[in-house]
Structure formats: C-alpha cells, structure tokens
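We give the entry.
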Amino acid sequence: MATILYAPAAATAMRAAAPAAVLDVRDKGPQRVSLTMLSLPAASRRSGQGSAAMAALTAYADAHSLTVTLTPDSSLGTPLAVLHRFYRAYGFHPVRNPEWLDTWTRYPVQ
C-alpha cells in the first residue's frame, strides 16, 4: 500500500495507481498543489507505477483546475536528466516564480 505523508484530495487518486509508492502532495493554497515526493522502492521501479501516479495526479489536477508544482531532486538516485524527461512528459516545465519554492510547474489543461 502507498505511504502518504500528507494527503490532500489530489493524492487520493495517486494512491490506487501506485500502491508501492511513497507520496507527498501538499496543498499550497487556492488552486495549487505541490508534489514534494514520489518515490518507489527499487523492486517496483520500471513497473509503470510512477507513470500511473503522475497520470492520476495530472488528471485530477485538470478536472479541478489545479496548478501542480514540484522540484526535481536527484537525491534518491534518479539522475536529473531522467527526472526532467519524465516530468516533461506530463506537461511540467521549468518556471521561476518568486512566490513558490518549487521550480517546475504544470498548469491545468481544460
């Protein structure tokens, strides 16, 4: 079962899609959530769970007009170039907003 560190409604959809994942999705105010952790144990990587979790998160965000922010972090072993490709595939792009700590953003698609 997925471990949820903090679960606003956006994380609920991710939980079923990635049962082995450690997730942390934070509510950052009106119309924005921040994905601060999506990690899978080594045995569950390349199983599609990370992709399924991201697809669930982006579908939820679009349905609720939420902007999703994150900061790619290689500290768990995945190279930044790999993380950048992964997040770009889900519509994220680098954005510097002085009001947000996160460095990548995905705006809702209507």
User: Anything to note?
Assistant: Residues 49-63 form the longest helix (15 residues). Residues 3-106 form a domain with the Aminopeptidase fold (CATH 3.40.630.30).
